[in-house]
Specification:
Chain lengths: ~450, ~450
């Protein structure tokens, strides 16, 4: 497939590249504890980019039965309108060896996947709540190539298992969720972790207590950390940088955050669902330090943002492509805090609660991503949060909101928990921040 | 194609089999500030097979390689057989449909060059940028598509449709002394190229509004009589009430079923709410849903009383009600689930001026930025608002957020004007991983006796 497209590109354009991906995703969903349907989605698609007269164009198709010249001619029409851009495709090179595939995951039957889900439903069900469990397995093959000889292909598997439990009473809605994501099937310990996590967090949430108001110590659990990290994810993106709106612009090498903050992106971690040997533009994967001991070091880039920034900037290997549209920046495994370590015995709060007289543990917030994210300001009602009193969780807090600015708050880190874990493709422990504004109602 | 699909159907041994195939041609152009981000054309082709057998579950197989159709039917049957149910899934009976339903393409977008489309949205983008130096950034998007659609099932339904769609949107971002404000313009139509040429004024207004909002005060928080403009009223009824009327929310959940018992009073006599997938030319309009059931006008609240809900064939059979033509799939990648189409608040009487004449101090909430609902609690942000003083529209205010309890708020709707209009905004509805499905809403101006408006409370 790719070789025909590259041939058409060589004939009709100055340069170009293509990304072809075939995937098969199997989904088993238990709704309200019942398995009623199973589905599979088989998809293959081609994304093509051309350079013609220094202008860049892009086109995509899933009509893989059509001749490759069709999609190339549409990419050329797109290039005729495109802005001039000195994009440089990577030439032939060797890629790191990254483990992205699991044979048992690939071979698992629908029955095996359904058994995983059924096991969780049985272990989590309780008479006063509705439980939903979804098990998904993806098998994919990615091939890239360009007109300067760069090429590569790899296979990957991905498995995700998610469970949520909802308890609705006349005056209260309580939802607790957890999940597993990996290249391979979950091991017994992974499923135990989901069950422990949901049972513990649900159990502690059954008692409702009033929230304190004021400037308080707040522990953000690995799942609750999204609102704090989202502004940093935006600020460390090459896209934000070239638009001139990153608060970290011009701050590389300067201490911006507390020494305790380190962030890296690492697509080379073995067995992680977001890992790859090269990105969708054929750039080799490598670990990229983003913030080291409080000091910003790098931004993520793809070929376009690197070209627009100019100078010595090269793509960092973070170009991601769907079938349609142009490549866009994406993180792989986003590592916050210390490096991933082996599994730790799990506890809510990760050992950070001890010294807290009165505070809050935030596990989930409403509306993360809405508002002025890039400025670092956040203000969210809690979806799931617990009150901490004298070093212990005393119950769930409803009708409270937390607010602050991450650039102020991250100047001082109260501590990292010993509960580091994966939340999707992000790894982090719990984080204690002092002086977060909490408004109870 | 239909012959090919019908012969493939005959190979299935399942009790019920359906095949849906779509071929979509789409173009998209997007500007950021003065810079063209992308102008691209794409083609998306694929199908979805769904099968059901007695005592077994749904087997669903979606695919992009149409040549694999026989193998995918086999695959769906395997998946279905792997699920054993004690309580069988039944489908409500419907009359098989045979139709060639080609919606008017209204200027086939496939015949228009990418350059002309780029020129159009560039001009609209320019309307926003030229308002004043306060407009520091814009986002302007053009998207169109035509989908050719085939649906056949083992009960004899056989459909061939052509569905056009075009959406334009603009965001004007104004910045001054550290304050950032934005305003949106958005158009979404189930129409074509002929219908997109008259929107310059709307984009210009978005630019002007963003600039004016820089100087507008924040609304003072508190309880007010609130008038919703038709757009805000429409989005409110979709988000806060519409989703509760989707039968898949209630059919497996006893608590929800109790909350949504037919006959329950939801509002005063003035309030009528419905969903009409058959209204012509709107974003949520289709002749048939994705189970081949004709769309219709379904009344949900009649004179304040809950009288209906939206169904797929499965939820209708389960609840002993009739299918309403509301089973929709985002694309061939997904099975159909219960969705809204064009959701509306029915017309009342009188004018907007009549509605505000006796309001001493109130808030006029206009155009929706968005909202979030968690069952009966909701929070909605208007794009902008005006104070109402002594029966007149007064100064522009910003940060108009309405929050409250759905049931109390519906019951607090006291007057509805006679100036109904359908929204023609883009965007769409997200549910269960299927986002964004084309829907729209319609409403007249609506007056809520008492609502909590957020903002700074003194």
């Amino acid at each position: 497939m790719i070789s025909q497209v590259l041939e058409a590109l060589r004939r009709g354009s100055d340069a170009g590249d293509a990304c072809w991906r075939r995937s098969e995703r199997t989904t088993i969903a238990f709704e309200s504890g019942r398995l009623k349907s199973a589905g599979v989605v088989e998809e293959s698609g081609l994304n093509v980019r051309v350079v013609k007269g220094a202008r860049v164009g892009v086109a995509g198709t899933t009509a893989t039965d059509a001749p490759p010249a069709d999609v190339v001619s549409r990419a050329l029409a797109s290039a005729a309108l495109g802005e001039p851009l000195a994009i440089e495709f990577p030439s032939a090179t060797t890629f790191p060896s990254v483990s992205t595939e699991s044979a048992p995951a690939k071979a698992a039957s629908v029955g095996v996947l359904a058994d995983i889900g059924r096991g969780l439903v049985e272990r989590l069900s309780r008479p006063d709540a509705q439980i939903n469990v979804t098990v998904e397995r993806e098998v994919a093959e990615t091939t890239i190539g360009n007109t300067v000889g760069g090429q590569g292909s790899y296979r990957a598997t991905g498995v995700s298992v998610s469970a949520d439990i909802a308890r609705v009473t006349e005056s209260d809605v309580l939802m607790v969720y957890d999940h597993y994501v990996g290249v391979g099937l979950p091991e017994a310990a992974d499923l135990d972790a989901i069950v422990d996590s949901i049972k513990t967090r649900l159990g502690l949430a059954l008692t409702v207590v009033p929230a304190s108001s004021g400037s308080l110590p707040v522990v953000f659990s690995p799942m609750g950390l999204s609102a704090i990290l989202l502004p940093l994810e935006e600020a460390l993106s090459g896209k934000t940088l070239i638009q001139g709106i990153s608060p970290l612009q011009g701050k590389v090498g300067e201490p911006v955050f507390a020494e305790g903050l380190s962030i890296a992106d690492d697509p080379t971690l073995p067995g992680r669902a977001a890992s790859y040997p090269f990105d969708d533009e054929g750039v080799p994967a490598a670990r990229l330090p983003l913030v080291e001991r409080g000091v910003p070091r790098n931004f993520v880039h793809d070929l376009e943002t690197a070209a627009r920034l100019g100078g010595a900037q090269r793509s960092t290997g973070h170009g991601h492509r769907g079938v349609f549209g142009k490549p866009r920046l994406s993180y792989s495994n986003f590592i916050v805090g210390s490096a991933p370590s082996s599994r730790h015995p799990w506890s809510l709060g990760g050992g950070l609660l001890e010294g807290i007289k009165d505070g809050l543990l935030v596990d989930d917030l409403i509306g993360v991503g809405q508002g002025n994210v890039i400025g670092g300001a956040f203000s969210h009602p809690v979806a799931l949060a617990y009150r901490i009193q004298n070093g212990k969780i005393t119950g769930r807090v409803k009708d409270a909101a937390v607010a602050g600015n991450v650039y102020d708050l991250l100047k001082k880190i109260g501590g990292w928990g010993d509960d580091g874990r994966w939340v999707g493709t992000r790894w982090s422990p719990s984080l204690l921040l002092e002086g977060v504004s909490v408004a109870g109602r | 194609m239909r012959d090919r699909l019908e012969s493939a159907l005959r190979a299935s041994r399942a009790d019920y089999t359906e095949i849906r195939v779509e071929r979509t041609w789409a173009t998209g152009v997007s500007f950021r500030g003065r810079r063209l981000e992308t102008a691209t054309a794409s083609e998306d082709v694929g199908g979805c097979v769904r099968v059901l057998s007695k005592g077994r579950g749904w087997g669903v197989a979606a695919f992009t390689s149409l040549g694999q159709l026989p193998a995918m039917i086999e695959r769906a049957q395997e998946l279905s057989r792997a699920i054993v149910l004690d309580e069988p899934i039944r489908l409500a009976e419907v009359t098989p449909q045979k139709a060639e339903a080609l919606l008017d393409l209204d200027g086939d977008v496939r015949g228009v060059s990418l350059a002309d489309k780029t020129k159009l949205i560039q001009a609209y983008n320019g309307e926003m940028l030229s308002v004043s130096g306060d407009i520091t950034d814009t986002i302007a998007n053009y998207h169109d598509e035509v989908t050719e659609y085939w649906f056949v099932n083992s009960e004899g339904t056989s459909l061939h449709e052509l569905r056009p769609e075009v959406t334009l949107s603009g965001t004007a971002i104004a910045r001054k002394n550290g304050t950032i404000e934005k305003a949106l313009e958005s158009i979404g139509l189930r129409k074509g190229w002929n219908s997109v040429h008259d929107f310059a004024a709307g984009f210009k207004q978005a630019g002007e509004r963003a600039a004016k909002l820089l100087r507008a005060p924040t609304v003072r928080g508190g309880h007010y009589p609130v008038i919703l403009d038709p757009e805000m009223a429409g989005v409110f009824i979709h988000e806060a009430f519409g989703h509760l009327s989707e039968a898949d929310f209630v059919y497996e959940n006893p608590q929800a079923r109790e909350m949504m018992t037919l006959g329950r009073r939801f509002g005063r006599k003035v309030l009528t709410v419905g969903d009409n997938g058959a209204a012509p030319g709107l974003r949520g309009t289709m002749p048939f849903d994705d189970e081949g059931v004709p769309t219709q006008d379904s009344v949900l609240i009649k004179e304040g009383e809950l009288v209906g809900r939206l169904h797929s064939r499965e939820t209708a059979a389960r609840m002993g009600e009739r299918p309403t033509g509301n089973a929709r799939a985002l694309s061939f990648r997904h099975p159909p689930i219960v969705r809204m189409t064009n959701t509306y608040i029915g017309n009342g009487e009188g004018t907007f001026a009549d509605l505000i004449r006796d309001v001493k101090l109130g808030v006029y909430a206009c155009s929706a930025f968005g909202g979030q609902t968690m069952l009966e609690s909701f929070s909605f942000t208007a794009a902008y608002g005006h104070m109402i003083r002594d029966g007149q529209v007064a100064e522009l205010v910003k940060d108009v957020v309405l929050a409250g309890n759905l049931f109390q708020t519906l019951d607090s709707i006291e007057r509805i004007a006679g100036d109904f209009r359908w929204n023609q905004i883009g965007g769409g509805c997200g549910k269960a991983g299927q986002a964004y499905l084309p829907v729209t809403e319609g409403a007249p101006h609506v007056r809520i006796e008492d609502a909590l408006v957020g903002g700074e409370v003194e």
